[in-house]
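Thread: "does anyone have the structure for this chain?"

Original post by V.I.:
We have the sequence but no experimental structure in hand. Need at least a predicted one for the grant figures.
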Amino acid sequence: MKAQSAAGQPQGAKAPAGGSAAHAVASVGACSIDHLVIVADNLDQGVAWCEATLGITPGPGGEHKLFGTHNRLFKIATPSNPMAYCEIIAINSVAAPAIKQGSRRWFDMDNAALQAAVAIEPRLVHFVANTPDVRAACAALATLNIDRGPALEASRHSRKGLLQWQITVREDGQRLFNGMLPTLIQWGKPGDAEPLRLHPRNSLPRSGVTLQSITSTHTEASALQSAYAAIGLKGVAVESGPANLSVTLQTPKGVVTLASQGL
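Reply from O.Q.:
Generated one for you, tokens below.
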């Protein structure tokens, strides 16, 4: 995998020879859109942006002690994306992250270019994909020479109990492919018989906002499409061109398109 610059330049990957990738895909299972990631400078700014842009007030979220962040959430689910919700996330200025010294927060939130952009306005920067076997999905990406990062155990308190999950986070915090290679999440603790019992989709009310489409445009579209195929991800269109993650939402304010603009 090519190294990503601090500004988030495109990544590259080469498809392996032989049938190893096909074998990995068969063992991963279906992968689906879990949630969108919108980074804000702070949560008050994020809420105000959401109200002005989408016409709704996001619901409560929680704190992530591991990374020193917190969020607000709202459901965007549809029959074709039944688990989808949106996360507005910001660094919690009064909470020090518990990650080891030298590591970075998830979603490139320590990146200077990203911080400068969201200081002006919150920005769609990434999405997270749900997988039934996060380690198998990471192994499938490894066949393409893509290091998605280790699967960390994380949790936060919710109104219905302790919400637990495993999520891929590189030590450098990079999202990869300018945010268009999804972070992978497996809900529940390892061996959980009901891993989706406390998934946010089950507690968030309908928001009036629904996900209509998601498109990843990238200069390395072929490599990105191969990565999606390796993890069994469908429903995300891939186009060739300057890097941009684009999401279309139906909202109380009409159809709204959010874009990462290459960030």
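V.I.: this helps a lot. The helical segments are 20-28, 43-54, 112-120, 134-142, 221-231.
O.Q.: and DSSP finds five helices and twelve strands in the chain.
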